[in-house]
Amino acid sequence: MEKPKLIDAAGWMALPLGLVWIGSFICTMYGSERPFLSLLSTALGLYSIYMLYRQLTNYRRLFPSVNWLHILRLSFVTCLLAGLLADAAQYAYFLLFDNGRLLSQLANAMQSEEYRQAWQQIMPDANMEEVQQIIQNMTVRDIMLQLIIYNAFLALPVSLLAALPVRKVARNKD
User: Is 87:144 a contact under the CB 8 Å cutoff?
Assistant: First the structure.
């Protein structure tokens, strides 16, 4: 069997991974009202790493001549493509379904004293009123820019975690 191009293999592997990430995102969006969904979101995120590991292991079993660096590149490109799929779903969610829900939840959270204290510890020089104003003025485009950057940065550690344990296939000696 001929080894497929990296982008072709990554594209096929990214589809189920992206769907799991979309599920995790949706659970995260409604997790503040339902703690079970928040827990499910975390579980889906962890499961996605295992799922990618299994895909990479199967790929290496089918093509034993590939080296670990190829597996790492495949894992990284798969995560980037899955992130793009998740970005598209996140954009559709914010454009069609959110209706400012996330921003109003953030504004409400910023009213609590515990949240303000946490922000002051993280960013002592920040003016809370300015931060609140920035959040209230965010558009779907601003939110998506942040999510796209976050998904791209998340691709490297996730791909590394999934690719690290993938070992060379042991050959049977007859």
Answer: yes
Lookup: tokens for 155: 């691709």
- Cβ–Cβ under 8 Å, residues 52 and 83: no
Calculate the CA dihedral of residues 50, 12, 64, 52 and round it to 10 degrees. Answer: -10
Summarised one tens digit per residue, pLDDT across range 95-129 is 999 998 888 888 787 788 888 888 788 888 878 78
Tens digits of per-residue pLDDT, 147-170?
999 999 999 999 999 999 998 776
Q: How many CB atoms lie within 10 A of CB 114?
A: 8
Residues 46-78 pLDDT 10s: 999 999 999 999 999 999 999 999 999 999 999
Q: How far apart are CA 36 and CA 30, in angstroms?
A: 10
Return the SS3 of 110.
Answer: coil
H/E element, 115:
helix 113-122
Q: Give me 131's structure tokens.
A: 């931060």
- Calpha distance 108→114 (Å, rounded): 12
In angstroms, rounded to a whole number, what is the distance separating the alpha carbons of residues 140 and 155? 22
Quote the distance between the C-alpha of residue 106 and its chain's center.
21
Q: What element of type H or E holds 154?
A: helix 140-163
